[in-house]
Automatic annotation (TrEMBL):
<feature type="region of interest" description="Disordered">
    <location>
        <begin position="1"/>
        <end position="30"/>
    </location>
</feature>
<keyword id="KW-0349">Heme</keyword>
<dbReference type="Pfam" id="PF03098">
    <property type="entry name" value="An_peroxidase"/>
</dbReference>
<protein>
    <submittedName>
        <fullName>Peroxidase</fullName>
    </submittedName>
</protein>
<keyword id="KW-0276">Fatty acid metabolism</keyword>
<keyword id="KW-0925">Oxylipin biosynthesis</keyword>
<keyword id="KW-0560">Oxidoreductase</keyword>
<dbReference type="GO" id="GO:0020037">
    <property type="term" value="F:heme binding"/>
</dbReference>
<dbReference type="GO" id="GO:0006952">
    <property type="term" value="P:defense response"/>
</dbReference>
<keyword id="KW-0275">Fatty acid biosynthesis</keyword>
<dbReference type="InterPro" id="IPR019791">
    <property type="entry name" value="Haem_peroxidase_animal"/>
</dbReference>
<dbReference type="GO" id="GO:0006979">
    <property type="term" value="P:response to oxidative stress"/>
</dbReference>
<dbReference type="InterPro" id="IPR020835">
    <property type="entry name" value="Catalase_sf"/>
</dbReference>
<keyword id="KW-0223">Dioxygenase</keyword>
<keyword id="KW-0575">Peroxidase</keyword>
<dbReference type="GO" id="GO:0016702">
    <property type="term" value="F:oxidoreductase activity, acting on single donors with incorporation of molecular oxygen, incorporation of two atoms of oxygen"/>
</dbReference>
<dbReference type="InterPro" id="IPR050783">
    <property type="entry name" value="Oxylipin_biosynth_metab"/>
</dbReference>
Length: 966
């Protein structure tokens, strides 16, 4: 402090309104790196909560610290002094200003224990300035933190997690803590704790409470604050220390006759040596920085034993105090405080049942290391799909572990350093039992996660190379390697499988495009080529199509982040819409729960395309799926009304949406995917995802030893986002480019006698023409026609011709060129890098990719090296495992994301239960499938569905009869 009594630190107000100091140092070298560390520490604190919960035999997690409350009141007051020093006046701190306050006094241990046990004591105060502004003040009755920084704080909490007995506490302090932080730091921390807990506390009203770390106080710079007893407290009888709750009883006795008051005092920053900001273990001594009284906190006289007081105390227990619940003028400073934002948010969310932590059993962690290494070594010689069944299943378990660890990249634009925020509003109670319209509040602790507008994630770091956008020319790639010269069928599937995956992709992903003709991608055509970019438009030597809208980040990098205009969740948005206005418009006009149908068909909009949740790229296959599941929604509504006549129409609607969305997820998991990846290992693995492993002791023993979380189906587990907030990824979008599944022509047949009705091309059943076709042919005949026809194989030289000159929103596009160009511009790595990023060996020559001589010659003609091969081309060219409908490389993204889509979703995990879905709804999902959906709405097709296989396998054909024609 200077001779004038002012602090020597220099502060300047930043453009954001924050006061910045030059010496705030970030672990890892930057705020972004430090944030990643803090997120990991926050997850570790949730494991501490669970250990403490088990030790206390509690039914739900408690606070990581300060678990036992001795006082919780809502009627306290904080009043600033009339003579508040001029330099300390800022924000809500004004002379004579008075505010209501909530106060909680507690022990500091993470496990509730008797008041006589050695412990620190804590005070938490929420000062309520207005409906939009409050300030949380947190303090303990010792002037320094036992931990210097966040890493030490978490290490200490982990060392004592679940320790109730003196022996286990000693083991934690003298063995676990030194292993975590080193002998010197552990010794200092133990001495701090021992000194702090040595004295006997007779009354919480007589303790002084010190802030843990510095806080900004507007232009005055950093301060530490303390709450010390004000005036002379009324005497109280000496407490009975044998009473485990004597501190509460002492406060109740004291407050029955007199107020309890504390002075709020500030110690101002002097210099980094004597009053450090970053090191919470150094005391700011009053000889160096005197405590200046600025306000008085008064807890008024009251009876703590009334029903009203007990109710208030329970409400206070539900609160989550956080020093970051303040304003920028008063934001916390230093490493410990910066860590507290992520840690306190995670801890509070976990305690309130809004966020979940899944612990991996010790046996799985220990055995997983050598077994995982053995599989990595084995896979160099033998790929997983060539191993015996049980080994291949375990191999996939460990491959998924590796992918979860290394291939989930958080693309959210996170705040770094942390910012002050208002106290968050509690989630809308209705969203605890119903999906929101736009995907918000699926994770109640992170409302925007996976919602409409959330960025696509990454499974690999983006490789953004503008210099290679047109190398080689995407038009050349399309015409030489993708063009369908002859239709190559996928003989184990039917066309319903092709319609289904487009139906699903429309629920999952949609990149926003700039309006046609505004901002375009321009692909130069090869010499001698020409193109019309609009129907009937001029002939040009360049191909144009609408550019994607990117999310521009603040550091000036090119747009490699893109927002999803659909929800990332498996929520049936293609049926219901992705916003409230659309969802309500699609409901019956009388406000009922049903979706609008006209004689069993979707109503037609002004553009000739039906009214549904997502209708881009509409064709007859999508019409079948949307019609079928709109009918299914209404069937669920009817069943709910009949079974639960007191349910409101809104409840019926939202419950039916939950049921239909979960049924769709189940169908995709246990029917569509095993149909397109037709191997026993995949069939068992995906049924295990949903239902748990088969009743086989060897399977269960292997999972118990190595992956215990798979012992039940995912719907019986807790939500788990693993290494990053949930989102679908750009790499996921890339592997689901499956346009070759779509045939160019279709034979429509009558299902009773097998009579051919007509043969049509894709353009005849595309767009507005689709609804005329389904009404003319009928849903049952259309389902039958698709059920007996094969889709295309997902391979080179099999891209639908109709989609290589395709009209969409006024543009004429080659969809193959669009797919290639967009993949490059989104920074998805090229095929060889894509393989390597998914832990597969790189290919060294074109011959490693294919043995087909014609394909080989074309690849060499188009690409100058194997490292130039486009991701989509490589995935199509790769020789898949036996029974697979697509490549093993694409499958790696699939096994990561397929479980993630279920595992992250609370409505498919912790809230997949009768209380939310109703018993009827759970039964509908668990017993239902694609066959039951089809037969509910087209019962005449019963004899035609495949026996012992899913509805996506080829159906039985009805031979044409003399009555039925050809």
């Amino acid at each position: 402090m200077t001779s004038s009594g002012q602090p020597s630190g220099q502060y300047e107000q930043s453009p954001s309104g924050q006061y910045e100091q030059s010496y705030e140092r970030y672990q890892g070298g930057s705020p972004q790196a430090e944030r990643v560390l803090f997120e990991r520490l926050a997850r570790e604190l949730m494991t501490v909560q669970r250990a403490n919960m088990r030790a206390a035999n509690a039914g739900s997690p408690a606070r990581v610290q300060h678990a036992k409350s001795s006082l919780g009141v809502e009627n306290a007051r904080l009043r600033f002094r009339d003579d508040l020093p001029e330099e300390l006046r800022c924000g809500y701190a004004q002379p004579g200003a008075e505010y209501p306050a909530t106060v909680r006094l507690s022990g500091a241990s993470g496990i509730g224990q008797a008041d006589g046990a050695p412990d620190l004591r804590g005070a938490a105060v929420r000062v309520e300035v207005s409906a939009a502004e409050s300030h949380d003040l947190l303090a303990t009755n010792w002037p320094v933190s036992h931990a210097k920084d966040a890493r030490e704080f978490v290490a200490f909490a982990k060392a004592l997690a679940g320790a109730r007995s003196p022996l286990w506490k000693a083991f934690g302090l003298f063995v676990k803590l030194p292993l975590a932080v080193g002998l010197t730091a552990a010794t200092r921390m133990r001495r701090n704790i021992q000194a702090a807990t040595r004295h006997t506390v007779n009354s919480l009203a007589g303790e002084t409470y010190f802030s843990r770390g510095a806080t900004l106080w507007g232009p005055a710079g950093p301060v530490r604050y303390l709450l010390r007893p004000a005036g002379t407290a009324a005497p109280a009888p000496r407490p009975d220390h044998r009473d485990p709750n004597y501190l509460h009883r002492e406060l109740a006795h004291r407050l029955a006759t007199a107020d309890v008051a504390f002075e709020l005092c500030l110690q101002r920053y002097v210099d980094e040596t004597r009053t450090p900001v970053e090191d919470g273990s150094v005391e700011w001594r009053e000889a160096v920085s005197p405590a200046v009284p600025v306000a008085r906190l008064t807890i008024p006289t009251q009876d703590l034993d009334t029903a009203q007081a007990r109710s208030a105390a329970r409400r206070v227990e539900e609160l989550a105090f956080n020093p970051w619940y303040t304003t920028d003028e008063f934001r916390p400073l230093g490493n410990l405080n910066r860590a507290r934002k992520a840690a306190y948010e995670a801890s509070a969310a976990h305690r309130q049942g809004l966020r979940f932590a899944t612990e991996e059993p010790l046996r799985n962690r220990v055995l997983g290391v050598p077994v995982g290494a053995a599989f990595r070594l084995l896979n160099r010689a033998v790929p997983w799909h060539r191993l015996p069944l049980q080994l291949s299943l375990l191999n996939l378990v460990f491959l998924r572990k590796v992918l979860r660890r290394f291939n989930l990249i958080d693309t959210d634009v996170q705040e770094a350093p942390p910012r002050a925020v208002p106290v968050p509003l509690p989630p809308d109670e209705r969203l605890r039992t119903a999906r929101s319209y736009d995907g918000t509040y699926n994770d109640l602790s992170a409302p925007a996660m996976g919602a409409v507008g959330a960025a696509f994630g990454r499974n690999m770091a983006p490789d953004y190379r503008p210099d290679l956008f047109d190398t080689p020319n995407p038009v050349t790639v399309s015409r030489q390697l993708l063009y369908r010269e002859n239709f190559l069928p996928a003989t184990t599937l039917n066309v319903l499988a092709a319609a289904w995956i487009q139906f699903q992709v429309h629920d999952w992903v949609n990149h926003r495009r700039h309006p046609a003709g505004t901002k375009t991608v321009e692909v130069p055509l090869p010499p001698g080529s020409s193109w019309q970019n609009t129907p009937g438009g001029p002939v040009e030597n360049v191909m144009r199509f609408a550019e994607n809208e990117g999310i521009h980040v603040s550091d000036g990098r090119p747009p490699v982040l893109f927002a999803n205009t659909a929800s990332h969740w498996w929520d049936g948005s293609e049926v219901y819409g992705a916003d409230e206005a659309t969802a309500k418009f699609l409901r019956a006009p009388d406000g009922g729960a049903d979706l609008r149908l006209e004689e069993g068909h979707l109503p037609i909009g002004q553009n000739g395309v039906p009214l549904s949740g997502f209708t881009d790229n509409w064709w007859l296959g999508l019409s079948v799926m949307h019609t079928l599941f709109a009918r299914e929604h209404n069937a669920v509504c009817a069943a709910l009304r009949q079974t639960y006549p007191s349910m409101s129409e809104d409840s019926v609607y939202h419950t039916a949406r939950l049921v239909v969305s979960a049924l769709i997820a189940k169908i995709h998991t246990v029917e569509w995917t095993p149909a397109i990846l037709a191997t026993e290992a995949i069939d068992l693995g995906l049924h295990t995802n949903w239902e748990g492993p088969p009743d086989n002791w060897l399977n269960k023993l292997g999972l118990w030893l190595l992956e215990a979380h798979s012992l039940t189906g995912i719907p019986k587990t807790l939500p788990d986002h693993h290494a990053a907030p949930y989102s679908l990824t750009e790499d996921f979008v890339t592997v689901y480019r499956m346009h070759p599944l779509i045939p160019d022509d279709y034979e429509l047949r009558e299902h009773h006698f097998g009579r051919r009705l007509e043969t049509v091309g894709f353009t005849d059943i595309n767009g507005a023409a689709a609804e005329g076709a389904i009404r003319k042919t009928g849903l049952a005949n259309t389902l039958y026609s698709f059920g007996i026809a094969h889709p295309g194989a997902i391979t080179l030289h099999n891209f639908p011709r109709a989609l290589q000159k395709f009209e969409r929103e006024g543009e004429l596009i080659d969809l193959a060129v669009v797919d290639l160009a967009r993949t490059r511009r989104r920074g998805v790595p090229r095929y060889n890098d894509f393989r390597a990023g998914l832990h597969k060996q790189r290919i060294r020559s074109f011959e490693d990719l294919t043995e087909n001589p014609e394909t080989l010659a074309r690849l060499k003609d188009v690409y100058s090296s194997v490292d130039e091969i486009d991701t989509m081309v490589g995935l199509f060219a790769e020789n898949p495992p036996t029974g697979f409908g697509f490549s093993d490389t694409a499958f790696r993204v699939f096994i990561l994301m397929a479980t993630r889509r279920i595992q992250s979703d609370r409505f498919l995990t912790v809230d997949f239960r009768p209380e939310i879905y109703t018993p009827l709804g759970i039964d509908w999902v668990q017993k239902g499938g694609m066959n039951s959906v089809i037969l509910r709405h087209c019962p005449d097709l019963a004899a035609l569905l495949p026996r012992g296989a899913s509805a996506f396998a080829p159906w039985r054909q009805v031979p044409p009869t003399s009555n039925g024609g050809s």
